[in-house]
Design a protein that fits this description.
Layout (H helix, E strand, L loop, with lengths): L5 E3 L12 E3 L17 E6 L3 E3 L5 E4 L7 E4 L7 E10 L8 E5 L15 H5 L5 E5 L10 E6 L5 E5 L5 E4 L9 E5 L4 E6 L3 E2 L5 H6 L1 E2 L5 H25 L13 H4 L24 E5 L4 E2 L5 E3 L9 E4 L7 E7 L8 E8 L25 E9 L4 E7 L4 E6 L2 E8 L7 E5 L7 E9 L31 H4 L41 E4 L8 H9 L14 E4 L4
Parallel strand pairs: 12-16
Antiparallel strand pairs: 1-2, 3-6, 4-5, 5-14, 6-13, 7-10, 7-14, 7-15, 8-9, 8-13, 10-11, 11-12, 17-20, 18-19, 19-28, 20-27, 21-24, 21-28, 22-23, 22-27, 24-25, 25-26, 29-30
Length: about 550
């Protein structure tokens, strides 16, 4: 490795802030330990279900799924990696380890100061920063490392992999203690020897993925589900204490409970990304002929004819977010195309009885609804991805390969995703997770912004905005419904009081016609009539078939 000169990085913060001493050269082949005492768990500041070993290096949660909040006994230096091994993982609960930092000294905390949950109870207080480890990464013997830099950014890596930007805005002007919540499926963690984090060059910073922040509702949902599960376990234990049970037919829902809805331990398809956020689940509102797994990640439709099998995402999709699903069951026949849609209607306001079997029937509702067929799916168990771009394009991918634009939607409002699950033996849909794209901050030349001399300069993200599949337009000229696709060009919004916009076909007439059934308003009436008369006429924006064109009269 050669001779190494150790130096202390300059820190503009007050002298009380601890700063790790890092080598000035690049990363070496061996992990460099931090000088001084290795971090241990605080012996007193911990949740009531936490048990520590004799060295305070191993924390085990006894009973339940919560009350597992712990802290380190000393502050963590900047760039010092807090390294944790997940010793024991117990499937069955929702959610996994929560981790982060706090500016509050655990030695000054009383037992009443430590709540049941780090998220959302602690993170809603000033001076606490924590998030959840994606559940798909919370595997036994996984080594998690996380650290803070002098810009207040928190990164984490799994098994010495690539860093993920985890948090921004952490106050680094004073001491920071590590905050670790042994939560959910994570039963036991062990603190390992800490190490220095390598300096990230701007090139590596641009490749670091940002871990999308979970909304408080996601943490509340996991806590609610775990409480429900715990209550059910208590009821089941009390039931076993009963002296006898009168003979009789099984309960009405016994057959539904016997339907296998996909084991949670089954690995993801190889074509799906390795690092996915696991915060998204199906909404509790669903069609009466579809059942959900306990964690609401798998939807099953056992009836061969399908029936009313609509399922919705629990929260709206974020612009730039990709949703990954597994369609069908591995080893079984391909389920064919999948009905996928976007709506502005909050599923919480719907009644299961009013959900139809045909998703197209939803287009007559007053809310914003768009439906398309995604596929065909080559084999059961294949992965589909749906990416909502900030401009409104919804891009489809099959097994990691782009298939082009599926829809074009209005992103000025909250949009939920929904599916119609195909029925039969292959009738299963599994949520694999989501992936949030980073905002692009590239210069016009395409080079990364920021100084090349400051390897710890502010984060610079770059996103490839061009793709042959995603940029291929699905607009067909009126004169030839089979002409090659041409990308539509939309003019910026005109000032109020001007005309209603130009027709996307002739670019001359005023837009005054709405297309039925998709609802897009993008044509003048003359072009709408000509387009309707064509064979296989379709909307220039979303490619849905045109059933009719309706002229709109404005006051």
């Amino acid at each position: 490795m050669g001779n190494t000169v150790h130096r202390t990085l300059p820190d503009p913060s007050p002298p009380a802030r601890l700063l790790a001493t890092r080598p000035c050269c690049g990363p070496g082949p061996e992990r460099r330990p931090v000088l001084g005492e290795a971090p241990r768990f605080h012996a007193q500041a911990k949740g009531k279900n936490v048990r520590l070993d004799g060295h305070s290096r191993r924390a085990t949660r006894r009973n339940s799924f919560c009350n597992g909040v712990t802290f380190t006994q000393r502050p963590i230096r900047l760039y010092e990696q807090v390294r944790l091994r997940l010793v024991a993982v117990r499937p069955g609960w929702s959610g996994a380890l929560r981790f982060g930092f706090t500016a509050h000294d655990p030695s000054l905390m009383s037992a009443q100061d430590i709540p049941k949950y780090a998220c959302p109870d602690l993170v809603t207080r000033p001076g606490y920063w924590a998030k959840a480890l994606p559940e798909n990464l919370a595997l036994r013997d996984t080594v998690l490392a996380y650290w803070a830099d002098r810009h207040g950014r928190v990164f984490y890596s799994v098994n010495d992999g690539e860093p993920v930007l985890f948090h921004c805005g952490v106050a680094v002007g004073g001491p920071l203690w590590a905050l670790i919540d042994v939560y959910g499926i994570t039963d036991e963690v062990q603190l390992l020897e800490s190490a220095f984090a390598d300096t990230l060059t701007p090139a590596r910073l641009s490749q670091a993925r940002f871990s999308a922040c979970l909304p408080p509702s996601s943490h509340d949902a996991a806590n609610f589900d775990n409480n429900e599960l715990e209550n059910n376990q208590v009821v089941a234990k009390l039931g076993h204490l009963a002296l006898g049970r009168a003979p009789g037919p099984p309960p009405a829902d016994a057959s539904a409970a016997a339907i296998p809805c996909g084991p949670r331990e089954r690995p993801r398809p190889a074509s799906s990304p390795a690092l996915l956020e696991a915060d998204l689940r199906f909404h509790a509102t669903r069609g009466p002929d579809v059942s959900l797994s306990a964690d609401r990640k798998v939807a099953c439709a056992p009836r061969p004819d399908g029936g009313r099998t609509l399922v919705f995402s629990e929260r709206p999709l974020r612009p730039g977010e990709s949703l990954f699903v597994e369609v069908g069951r591995p080893g079984l026949a391909a389920p064919g195309a999948v009905a996928f849609g976007i709506t502005s209607c909050d599923p919480g306001g719907l009644r299961p009885a009013e959900l139809p079997a045909d998703p197209d029937a939803l287009l007559d509702r007053k809310e914003y609804w768009v439906v398309a067929r995604a596929g065909p799916v080559p084999n059961g168990g294949d992965a589909l991805s749906f990416t909502l771009r900030p401009g409104g394009d919804v891009l489809l991918g099959v097994n990691g390969r782009p298939r082009g634009r599926l829809l074009c939607v209005d992103t000025t409002q909250a949009l939920w995703a929904f599916f119609a699950v195909r029925g039969g033996a292959a009738g299963q849909l599994r949520l694999l997770g989501t992936l949030q794209s980073s905002p692009a901050t590239t210069s016009p030349s395409g080079s990364l912004s920021g100084s090349q001399d400051d390897s710890d300069s502010d984060m610079a993200f770059s996103v490839n905005q061009s793709s042959s599949a995603s940029e291929s337009s699905l607009v067909t000229a009126p004169s030839s419904p089979l002409s090659p696709p041409v990308s539509p060009m939309f003019s910026p919004p005109e000032p109020a009081g001007s005309k209603n916009g130009e027709c996307t076909v002739c670019f001359d007439g005023e837009v005054d016609t709405v297309i039925y059934t998709c609802g897009h308003m993008c044509l003048c009436h003359s072009c709408g009539l000509r387009l309707k008369r064509q064979a296989r006429a379709c909307c220039p924006i979303c490619r849905r078939p045109i059933k009719d064109v309706i002229k709109i009269y404005r006051p």
